[in-house]
Design brief:
mainly alpha, elongated
């Protein structure tokens, strides 16, 4: 700090300013080094749930695919826990990314994963659940959407992006009705509960999505997120979207004789393996 590396001026006042400038530079460097663990910690917390969502909603994530996979494996009841986790995740991201805007531009390690795409997928899944089956939908779905668009608006406000703070539920959205109808048919084909008719479900889904669609699309466009379905256009892909590929359900074709048989207590050998 005392070795400034250039010739000092002869005036006492100028020397004092020179040393203050050198000390200020070292303080700035120390602050930057101290903030690196904080930034990495926030990034790591964000990416943990994004990576976990890959097996639940595909890559890139898509809201209807999340519901389809949960229905196929019989884990619809687990959606409440999922929405609760993403509600807390959205609160954490709202605080960290509005405080440190540089985190917005840190991409996921996997090419097709993205925090903004994943958040859109989870909120779309929650909105579909509330629109199709309001009686059976968990309360966590409503809370997840609320915290999700609050997170997006906090980030948009920090980035000086315009948005409507109180949109009309009857306002039209960018997502077309034909895409909703296609997803509705696919969800119904898997046996997902639907207590509302399609037209009524569309009206309620549109009323939920209008709260976050415009801000989410603008952020996905600005960050050049992977071109996932239902996430708007991109600079390079011009509206093209990648549908997540569902893994094949592979099961053994032949089972050895006696496999899976429970051995009675009197047939068990104390010195042998217990199957």
């Amino acid at each position: 700090m005392s070795t400034l590396g250039f010739t000092l001026s002869h005036a006492e006042g100028s020397k004092f300013v020179d040393f203050i400038a050198a000390g200020t530079g070292m303080v700035l460097v120390a602050l930057q080094i101290a903030y690196l663990p904080t930034l990495y910690s926030a990034y790591n917390r964000r990416e943990t749930l994004v990576t976990l969502l890959e097996s639940r909603a595909g890559s890139p994530a898509w809201g209807p695919e999340l519901l389809i996979r949960h229905q196929l494996v019989g884990s619809i009841d687990n959606l409440a826990n999922l929405f609760a986790e993403w509600e807390r995740w959205a609160a954490d991201v709202a605080e960290s990314h509005s405080t440190y805007p540089s985190l917005l531009y840190l991409r996921s390690p996997r090419a097709l994963n993205s925090w903004i795409v994943s958040l859109i997928a989870v909120m779309d899944a929650a909105a579909l659940t509330l629109a199709m089956d309001p009686v059976g939908a968990p309360i966590e779905a409503r809370m997840c959407i609320r915290m999700g668009f609050t997170c997006l608006r906090d980030i948009a406000q920090g980035a000086r992006m315009p948005f409507d703070p109180d949109p009309d539920p009857d306002q039209p959205i960018v997502l077309g009705r034909d895409k909703f109808d296609e997803a509705f048919e696919r969800l119904a084909a898997t046996g997902l509960p639907a207590t509302r008719p399609r037209d009524e479900a569309w009206a309620h889904f549109r009323g939920w999505r209008v709260n976050y669609e415009s801000v989410a699309y603008a952020l996905a466009f600005r960050l050049d997120a992977p071109p996932a379905k239902w996430t708007g256009p991109r600079r390079q892909f011009r509206g093209e979207s990648i549908e997540p590929v569902r893994p094949t359900d592979r099961q053994p074709t032949s089972v050895p004789p006696g496999a899976g048989r429970i051995i009675p207590e009197h047939e068990r050998r104390p010195d042998g393996p217990q199957l």
